[in-house]
Write a structure and sequence with these properties.
The chain is 52% helix and 13% strand. The chain has 20 helices and 18 strands. Helix 11 (357-390) crosses helix 12. It is elongated. It starts with a helix and ends in a 16-residue tail after the last helix.
Length: 760
């Protein structure tokens, strides 16, 4: 306690400059704690989304007792998001079950919508086709995953949804049907955010805890020479840093509270939340209030170790020893791990993330990042010594001799920026792996609807929906499940279309003749390759009540090329519409629509389809809407992580560069008094920072790319070597160098104050 009180007396009684440094430490720590709180709260926000989505999920059964309440769920794509609709046919049983966010179930003709749907109805009146009925109210926040969700409860009659509806027994599950981020992906996201934010944050907080390190070390050495014990000297220094860190933690939590209030009103792209979702939990508050002061305590004790152990050498400014080499061991170990996995990518059997690899991959990446940070002072020292021995330039010699004496001082300035470039490679790797989810890339978009869910009149109207350029029907052959011989008969999917409709739905086709049953052959696909010409396939109509049509696989064939994601690709027969029984509707059939793949065209077709058949379930072929939504959320979070990492890296650079300028004033003054020009001094300051920074950035690019490739290889990505992302990282590295150059220019002032060289 005595050393703690002494540290506080020194803090508040050592002059205005010391108090300003204390406030700077607290301000820097508050920024770091605010970023830490945001990173720790992101999983809590996602969990809140999933909990509300799970609480409103209907519990149903397939049995349909008389007068029971029925529900029918539809999830339709609206652009790149999902429009969730729940049709409710209220009966005398089960009507007392009410989902969160509503006071009662909607009756026939009533529609309850989310606030975003109401806004959408004003912006896009065509959306009204998805919501047959009158707007009867809003869904409360308890019934929505997030404020921008497209969700609606639509009241209808039991008869309307009796064929596909299920009996309602209640609401609520323990898990969300479609989580905001899959658990496995969330682990990857946490790892990426840790690399993007937490590693630079640790460096930043360490920089803040070591402000004015040289002056403080000399002051602590004086206390040691006056008789204070070695441990007491360390406690005096640690007390000052802990108080600054604790004040910074409190300020940081307040900054996060304000940030949460602002961001819940403005939102982020693809990610919105309610204020209560982002409230600080007890665990997050404890980590921030304990973690930052604990880190400051250890850093403070470590920075005072030299003054406590050898105070005379500190007071007389003895030459510092060579930096420790154990950091290089971490770097070599981490590079060995990630390089080994990269080598497997060149073989026929690349490594995977199963078993021990699930631990070794993140361990190798972390060791590489930490080793890179801890090895930079050693690299700077060795480089400075060799350059100083060989150069004939006065500017370069002065710069390198100073880096040789104080390699750690220079590297504190640039470490945050180097680590940011390393982490950016990992973020690129995460995005590349996540984007393996199929995206629409063909010029044609196909839509599939169960033929049984649309009437003949609706089928005719769908042909005239704006944007639809072709329509066809796919039907599957019938196999008797009660076959006595136990053999499994082959199945064949037939496309009911004309030659013109076929040409509109594929890339190219050759040999089509209207009015004839023909075989469909795609050289790039194995579908139907095992079928023998002359084989007969039965197709049933009108739910088995009508006739069965046997179609024989002919020898005449059409050679075509389907788009990567196409509803036609599974068909092996082309059947002209005239070959079907008049007025008959095939069983086990899908109505296929085709349009252009432009987003506005897809939106137009979906709106038109909903207006004609609002209850029909529409599937976008080749598009995973839930996957795209997850990618959008993850991209947003990674972008937030990159921004936080950039802010932390730049803040660490600004704080360290400013502190270094103040610390170096006596040396700069001495050099200028013996005749050095201000231009030369500025060049020296610039070279001292830029040269080790350039070396560090090159290492960050190389090690970051190796870490990224090892992650992609073990993750089973289709892309192993991200060459397309290298130019972007190189440009980012050049930007970092430009920022460093701009930051070093003000370090040498024009006014010479001789008093600085004799102050102690």
């Amino acid at each position: 306690m005595r050393e703690f009180l002494l540290g506080l007396r020194l803090l508040f009684g050592a002059g205005r400059g010391n108090r300003m440094r204390f406030l700077l430490m607290a301000a820097g720590g508050s920024l770091g704690v605010c970023c830490l709180a945001l990173v720790l709260t992101i999983p809590q926000i996602l969990d809140a989304h999933d909990m509300r989505a799970a609480a409103r999920e209907p519990r149903t059964t397939s049995a349909q007792p008389a007068a029971s309440t029925l529900v029918l769920q539809r999830s339709d794509p609206y652009g790149s998001v999902t429009f969730n609709r729940v049709f409710v046919g209220v009966g005398t049983k089960g009507s007392d079950s009410v989902p969160p966010g509503l006071h009662e179930l909607p009756g026939p003709g009533e529609v309850f919508v989310s606030p975003r749907v109401r806004e959408l109805l004003r912006e896009q009146p065509a959306v009204k086709g998805l919501l047959p009925g009158r707007d009867s109210g809003l869904i409360g926040p308890a019934g929505l995953a997030h404020p921008d969700e497209l969700f609606a409860y639509i009241g209808t009659t039991r008869d309307t949804i009796a064929d596909e509806g299920r009996t309602l027994t209640g609401f609520g599950y323990d898990y969300a049907p479609f989580p905001a981020v899959e658990p496995s992906t969330l682990s990857t996201l946490r790892f990426a955010l840790g690399a993007l934010v937490l590693l630079p944050l640790g460096i930043f907080l360490s920089v803040c805890a070591r402000l004015s390190a040289a002056a403080r070390t000399r002051r602590l050495a004086s206390l040691r020479l006056l008789g204070l014990s070695a441990k007491g000297t360390q406690r005096v220094n640690a007390a000052e840093t802990v108080v600054a860190a604790l004040l910074g933690s409190l300020l940081g939590l307040g900054e996060y509270w304000l940030l949460n209030q602002v961001m819940t009103r403005t939102g982020l792209p693809s990610l919105r939340w309610y204020p209560d979702d982002g409230e600080l939990s007890a665990a997050t508050t404890a980590v921030c209030l304990v973690g930052a002061p604990a880190l400051a305590w250890f850093v403070g004790r470590a920075s005072a170790r030299e003054a406590a152990a050898n105070p005379l050498a500190v007071r007389r400014t003895a030459v510092a020893g060579r930096p420790a080499r154990w950091g290089a061991l971490l770097l070599v170990t981490g590079l060995g791990v990630v390089s080994g996995y990269c080598v497997t990518g060149l073989t026929d059997r690349p490594a995977n993330s199963i078993g021990p690899n699930a631990f070794l991959i993140p361990a190798g990446v972390v060791l590489t990042g930490l080793g890179l940070v801890l090895t930079l002072p050693l690299i700077s020292h060795v480089l400075a010594r060799r350059v100083a021995r060989t150069t004939q330039s006065l500017t370069l010699n002065l710069a390198m001799r100073r880096n040789e004496v104080e390699p750690g001082s220079t590297m504190r300035v640039v470490t945050g920026l180097v680590l940011l470039v390393f982490a950016a490679s990992l973020a690129q790797g995460v995005l590349i792996q996540l984007e393996q989810v199929t995206r629409p890339s063909a010029p044609v978009q196909d839509y599939s609807l169960p033929l049984s869910s649309v009437s003949v009149e609706q089928q005719r109207e769908l042909t005239g929906v704006p944007g639809v350029r072709a329509q066809a029907v796919t039907m599957d052959s019938w196999v008797d499940p009660g076959s006595l011989d136990g053999t499994v008969r082959e199945q064949a999917t037939a496309l009911v279309a004309t030659c013109a409709q076929l040409e509109a739905m594929v890339q190219r086709s050759e040999g089509c003749r209207d009015g004839r049953v023909m075989r469909l052959v795609d050289p790039n696909s194995s579908v139907g390759s095992d079928l023998t010409p002359g084989t007969s396939f039965p197709y049933r109509f009108d739910a088995g009540k009508g006739r069965t049509l046997d179609i024989t696989l002919p020898t005449e064939r059409i050679v075509y090329s389907a788009y990567p994601a196409s509803a036609v690709g599974s068909a092996v027969l082309l059947v002209p519409p005239s070959a079907l029984p008049a007025g008959a509707r095939p069983d086990s059939a899908q109505l296929v629509l085709s349009s252009g793949s432009e987003p506005e065209r897809v939106r137009e077709v979906l709106d038109g389809t909903a207006a004609v058949a609002p209850i029909a379930e529409v599937e976008l072929i080749g598009v995973n809407i839930q996957g795209l939504e997850q990618i959008a959320v993850i991209e947003t979070l990674l972008a937030v992580g990159m921004i936080m990492g950039l802010v932390i890296g730049v803040a660490a650079f600004v704080v360290a560069a400013t502190d270094r300028a103040v610390e170096r004033r006596p040396q700069v003054t001495a050099v200028m008094l013996i005749g050095a020009r201000a231009r030369t001094v500025r060049a020296v300051q610039c070279v001292q920072v830029v040269l080790p920074l350039t070396v560090g950035l090159v290492l960050a690019l190389v090690t970051g790319k190796l870490a990224e490739s090892s992650y992609l290889i073990t993750g089973g990505s289709a892309v192993y070597w991200d060459l397309d992302g290298t130019p972007l990282l190189a440009l980012a590295a050049l930007g970092v160098v430009a920022v460093a150059i701009a930051g070093t220019l003000p370090l040498a002032g024009r006014r010479i104050d001789p008093e600085l060289i004799r102050r102690d």
